């Protein structure tokens, strides 16, 4: 039970922590509606195995410059997404839907998450050591921790998508305001990530 509680707590805190992926989820929910954006809540299931495997096997041996390059590249990509979202608002008439094919949105969300230093930092500092400790006790404990973590993380992401999407149903002006706010969040987190990379 302690393993499940710990996994669920860490997963929920990850979903509720502001970051580039959350900002992108909100942007797509405002632009496409919650149902079309819902698959994006599952992005960590695709990207995190790469992060976890890299952290546990390789990342500790990489030079600091590699982490700096990852921050800079990820920050630039998130800023590009924010600018693109703002330009889409100018091109689209009020209340007109902006439809992204789900694969495109999913790939972009995956790039956001795989270059997100928050995800890497979590698995380096907290998730990786915790998972390794439970796995050493038994593979079943490690699997239980991961199951609880991703159930809470993806569930929390889905809740954010629906909440933001429902707020966007208040009318065209509300939808545009939410889309603009989420685009500004993307710009903010991208700039923050670039700053960390330059100062790191």
Structure described in brief:
With 200 residues, the chain is an all-alpha fold. The protein contains 9 helices and no strands.
Helix content percent band = over 70%
Which structural class matches the secondary elements?
mainly alpha
Tally of individual domains:
1
Radius of gyration equals 17 Å
Strand content: under 5%
C-alpha end-to-end distance: 39 Å
Order of helices and strands: HHHHHHHHH
Low-confidence stretches: 93-103
Output mean pLDDT. 76
Oligomer: single chain
Total strand segments: 0
Biggest β-sheet, characterized?
none
Shape: flat
- The DSSP helix count reads 9
Topology of helices and strands:
Blueprint lengths: L1 H15 L3 H13 L1 H4 L5 H15 L6 H28 L10 H13 L2 H21 L1 H30 L3 H28 L1
Helix pairs in contact: 1-8, 2-6, 2-8, 2-9, 4-6, 4-7, 5-9, 7-8, 8-9
Structure description:
Helix content is 84%, strand content 0%. About 6% of the residues have low confidence. The protein is mostly helical. The protein has one domain. It is flat and about 55 Å long. It has nine helices and no strands.
């Amino acid at each position: 039970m302690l393993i499940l509680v710990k996994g669920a707590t860490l997963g929920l805190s990850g979903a509720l922590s502001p970051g580039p992926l959350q900002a992108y989820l909100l942007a797509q929910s405002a632009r496409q509606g919650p149902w079309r954006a819902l698959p994006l809540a599952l992005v960590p299931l695709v990207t995190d195995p790469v992060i976890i495997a890299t952290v546990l096997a390789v990342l500790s041996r990489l030079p600091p410059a590699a982490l700096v390059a990852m921050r800079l590249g990820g920050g630039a990509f998130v800023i590009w997404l924010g600018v693109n979202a703002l330009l889409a608002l100018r091109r689209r008439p009020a209340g007109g839907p902006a439809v992204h094919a789900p694969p495109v949105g999913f790939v972009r969300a995956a790039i956001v998450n795989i270059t997100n230093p928050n995800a890497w930092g979590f698995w380096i500092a907290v998730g990786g050591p915790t998972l390794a400790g439970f796995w050493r006790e038994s593979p079943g404990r490690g699997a239980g921790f991961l199951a609880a973590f991703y159930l809470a993380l993806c569930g929390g992401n889905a809740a954010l998508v629906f909440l933001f999407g429902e707020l966007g149903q208040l009318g065209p002006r509300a939808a545009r305001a939410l889309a603009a706010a989420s685009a500004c969040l993307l710009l903010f987190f991208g700039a923050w990530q670039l700053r960390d990379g330059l100062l790191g």
